[in-house]
Design a protein that fits this description.
143 residues, mainly alpha, 6 helices, 71% helix
Length: 143
């Protein structure tokens, strides 16, 4: 019988101003999408879901020193998918949140495979941005 061992590393709290400022800008962008650009279907329906995983990434990196960005991105994707699947089971209503309340809006109320695709695209964008960033740092070290 195989035994699976999961190693958990202790995340260190460390404030990062750069990521915090990115978080604020992305959050304001999400608010803009939800309030002013809500009538532009593609922006509201797709771009907002792509950006939200980037928002989660920058928020976490604002307060924690995490060295394995790939695992963080995978964790964000899994978390996003779990929230989306919870929408399938109308979890916001079951938890007693009223339609229109902040928590009802944050959790969401309708499942969509397209949303999961958008979360995945956002995670791929994050992954490639991190890879590009690490390559540029390696090139700077060679100079």
């Amino acid at each position: 019988m195989p035994i699976f061992i999961i190693r958990f590393k202790v995340m260190k709290l460390k404030f990062n101003l750069k990521y915090f400022l990115f978080t604020i800008v992305i959050f304001l962008t999400e608010i803009l999408i939800a309030t002013r650009l809500k009538d532009i279907f593609v922006v509201r329906a797709y771009l907002g879901d792509v950006i939200v995983v980037i928002l989660l990434y920058t928020f976490i990196k604002s307060f924690f020193k995490i060295t394995d960005n790939g695992k963080l991105i995978l964790g964000i994707l899994i978390f996003s998918c779990l929230i989306e699947f919870a929408q399938y089971f109308t979890i916001a209503e079951k938890l007693g949140f009223q339609p229109g309340s902040i928590m009802y809006i944050v959790i969401g109320n309708s499942f969509s495979w397209v949303d999961i695709l958008c979360y995945t695209v956002g995670c791929f964008i994050l992954f490639f941005l991190i890879k590009i960033k690490s390559v540029s740092f390696m090139e700077q070290d060679r100079k």
